[in-house]
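Protocol step 4 of 6: structure prediction from sequence.
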Amino acid sequence: LKVHYFPKRILGAVLYSVYLEGFLFCKVRYSQLHHWNEQLRRIFGKGVPAFPPKFYLAMTKSMADERRAQLEQYLQNVSIDPSITNSDVFISFFRKLQQDTFKIQTQQSFLDVYLADGRYLRIDIQTSDTAERVLEVVSYKIELSRELIGYFSLFLIQDHNNGELSVLKKLAEFELPYVSLQSMKESPCKIGIRKWYMDPSLDKMLMNCRTSVNLLYIQVRGWDFSVSLAQFLELAQEVQHYGYIKLAPCSCDYPEAGCTAAIHVGNNEISCCIKLPSNQIKEVSFKINRVRCWQVTFLGSVTGQGLDQFLELRFEYNDSDTWRWIAFNTKQVCIT
């Protein structure tokens, strides 16, 4: 859970905007978080991180900035513990916040969940159903073995005018797909099911299930082999960037400022085809085990809805035994 806070005062109370993976997720007041923290402590005791204290005097700008930083750190620490994130008190709290923020009441509806080949399943849902619940329903309808559900996830996908698709983010298990989709209604987005892991060797775990093999098969587009699906997947694994997620072109400062990059993410690396200002092409692979630390900076949003966001991914990388910071500007930071 990556969150950012931008204060807005409503009727005397500061309203914080919470961003999940760079997209507006919900809005919340300090008092709501304080009450929720007390609920968590009654259930989980000392396992709950320290909550930012109240201020009984008017907050200065520096105090407000400190509180924002503390609240962000608190939520990030809370979301690390699966026993908390899987609890009813966690899920119900963020369910209500997400619905209240986008003014969507709980009611019967339907949701189209797309496969990688453009086909979709229309499923009956409650607007308050979580991504975990929706994924279970989809898996049941397509007869995906229950033991293999964990290898797949729901994603928010942008549909461009030229027919290209961009994977914007993986939906968190406690996120409400219907609400998240409605929050992006001004842009052509859809919910899709895809494998979520980046290690191609895990494909072997799915080969004994017809449905999982079909899902893998249709996710690898643009090929036409007159062989069985299993043979096709074995052949496809020999192709460069098999199993990787392709990101939209973006700007970067490696090896110099003013470069653009075509990026594939997977198998513990960020593989880049970088175009230099001189129009020369440079192939680079950033290995994850050579990254010492990283940070995501939310640089702003034109509308506040997410698709107009400006995000920067910076990581410190061991480049030829020298540590240096490398930056990419992309909407799809969460995928990396």
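Step 5 (inspection) to follow. The longest helix spans residues 61-78.
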